[in-house]
Design a protein that fits this description.
alpha+beta; 9-stranded antiparallel sheet; 27 helices
Amino acid sequence: MMTAKEIRDSYKKFFESKGHAIVPSAPMVIKDDPTLMFTNAGMNQWKDIILGTRDPEPRRRADTQKCLRVSGKHNDLEEVGHDTYHHTMFEMLGNWSFGDYFKEGAIDMAWEYLVDVLKLNPEDLYVTVFEGDPKEGLERDDEAAGYWLKHVPADHVINGNKHDNFWEMGDTGPCGPCSEIHVDSRTPEQKAASGKTGRELVNQDDPQVIEIWNLVFMQYNRKADGSLEKLSMNVIDTGMGFERLVRMMQGKHSNYDTDVFQPIIKAEQQITGLKYTTFEEEEEAARNHSQSSDLKAQNDINIAMRVCADHLRAVAFSIADGQLPSNAKAGYVIRRILRRAVRYAYTFLGQKEAFLYKLLSTMVEEMGEAFPELKAQQQLIARVMKEEEDSFLRTLDKGIALLDKAMEQLRAEKKTELDGVQAFRLFDTYGFPLDLTELICRENGFTVNEKQFDVEMQKQKERARNAAAVENSDWVELQAGEQQFVGYDYSEYTCHILRYRKVTQKKNEFYELVLDYTPFYGEMGGQVGDQGVLVSENETVTVIDSKRENGQTVHIVKQLPKDVSAEFMACVDTDKRDASAANHTATHLLDYALKQVLGEHVEQKGSFVSPDTLRFDFSHFEKVTDEQLREVERMVNDMIRQDLPRDEHRDMPMEEAKKLGAIALFGEKYGDKVRVMRFGPSCELCGGIHTTSTGRIGFFKIVSESSVAAGVRRIEAKTGKECEELLYELEDSLKAVKSFFNNAKDLQAVIRKYIDEHDQMKKEIEAFQAQAVERTAKQLVEKAREVNGVKVITAVLPMEPAAAKDLAFKIRAAVDGSLLCVLGTKAGEKPQLTIMLSDDLVASHGMNAGQMVREAAKLIQGGGGGQPHFAQAGGKNADGLSAAVDKVIELAKL
């Protein structure tokens, strides 16, 4: 039986023998494409070739690509774990042809690999072809059907509708008909028992008759108005699910029963002490008529283990590619995946402590050879995952405490259903999923109003959709051609507009322009895009931003030029560019200095470079000390004073760049030829804009050092003119402080004297306040009235919250026997209610200070809580204090 590694290698060797260049996987996290956060298909990295903005050579390529599908059109997240063949992170085996072979070649090679090389049974293979769509004016793909008939009988060729057999990347962009290859992996017994042929089960969600390979024949480009136009060249884009292929080759009926996932699942069983049942074991249990409750409990465990095994891979690869969990965009998607796994482990595997990170070593052992970035960053990945798990587990505990309170209130009100709005608030604020809320409520005899929850969820989705809605019109082509970037050598250049389109976002309209020649650097690699102007004979158009899209700079303007066919002079705002360049070069020097001071383990994890500031994220497992930061600053400024010249190498082969010692970053996509940027000892691969020498930076000053995530630190710094302004601010602040102390020469000594005097006065005031509390306690005890054997003490007086608590405990200590003490205090305009009960009133009379204070606090427009014998509540309405005190006495029912 072939292992997963052997299958992966056989695919690459087969297509290499067919003249394909074997290329490395692109990063799973996409950094410079505004339309995508993650690679969700093998073709993502070739979008610019397909759209005609990059040279297609070599025209034949193949690889295994890391993919993630959790959001947007290709959203598999909620199915993951519940079936045997959907995943978030998966490997996509792919081969491409850019204007070389087309349908016949793709079909013949796919068949040869599956049947002749891997020896899959041809009788179990079924293929689909596009049946056509009259509305689109598209006929059946008879061409593909004819090529398939060379290999399979006619009853194994199935017509597929537009949904299944017309592949589209999104609402717009490259698309075309496709042919799917499906495998019937049922056992002979299952086939006989079902009475159905494999043909009847294709695309019917049967877990044993599944798609294994999709051959996409890209012929069209979908325009914004929905119409189709022919692509400039035909493209073959095939994608085969690696995990599904391994399943077929290893004779399994679930992807999770293969050697891709089993080592992780075995580690889960070892840690949890629970058993995972394979597909065959599940079938056996069902045949033996096991108790339905036992089957359900085991099924819950199986789903949870599959979820954890799958999500572990998605999160680990994302962190390795440089995407940390966060509350925004791609980072939020990763956080959501990780939290889904934590929740399943918490609910069904009994894991109340961080669990997922413990599985990482097993995963790295299995996949580290094929994906060395996992092994290189294992320690960082583990730390980030553990911190995220710990954080969410604390959140779960908070959510459970809130849910307990809500259920307590339901019991008091004799209700049996939790409001869906409350359930949604738990989800929205604490990440508490609905099914977990339902599970806990069910265990306590309550239900949840799902319809109300769904209504709230829909409202939130609408808000998010409206906030993010972007409408792109079609590109208006003025002339054919590819853009040439000249910004490394020029800040001004003569140009013409190749194409433009209108973009509408949040009711704001602007235009995107693509020029034939541009000195504008489009935002990429953490460096902001250039701004500037386009100047023609008759007008000047302001470029408010420039972004990178499909390998070219897109210039953003508020007004379309009156004459779009005119010749323009593209002029970059050089003041802003020079400031950005200084900050960018400074990040390279900073990276080098950090490695020297902290160690070679330092790895860049992200950066942001603008004219005003620079931000640099890096791997390091503890706070950088002030002494280390000062040493880094000195080293960077020393390199600046040396005025090291820029040593730039363009289009250098990657192997030569490595020999130079150039630093490549994990999670970045590099071509065969790269740009090397060297400043003295600093040498990195970089496509950004830099100074001509380090002296142009002027000066470097770190303004902050902080934590971004477990094992990742962030430095923010200033250079040049911004440093000068920073020094002026510090100087002005120092002068202002000195003026408060009569411009004392030894400012530190004077401030120390004032602090010592303040501390002494504070102690004296606290002693005086303690005496006042003692006197007040004595007076109140003396004035206590007795009601049915209970000493009742009430008062409304001005007092700080801490003193009120102290007063209540002093009264309790001074009173023997039953006590009900209610204090209404006011500090400034802030009211507070304090209740103290003797133990016998709690034990024998069933009183509860926490419940009483919550009810009475409504009269001061506040809330609070505490223990049965002592509780406090704050509020907003001081005028209601007397009424609140009276309310407590009323609630006591003495």
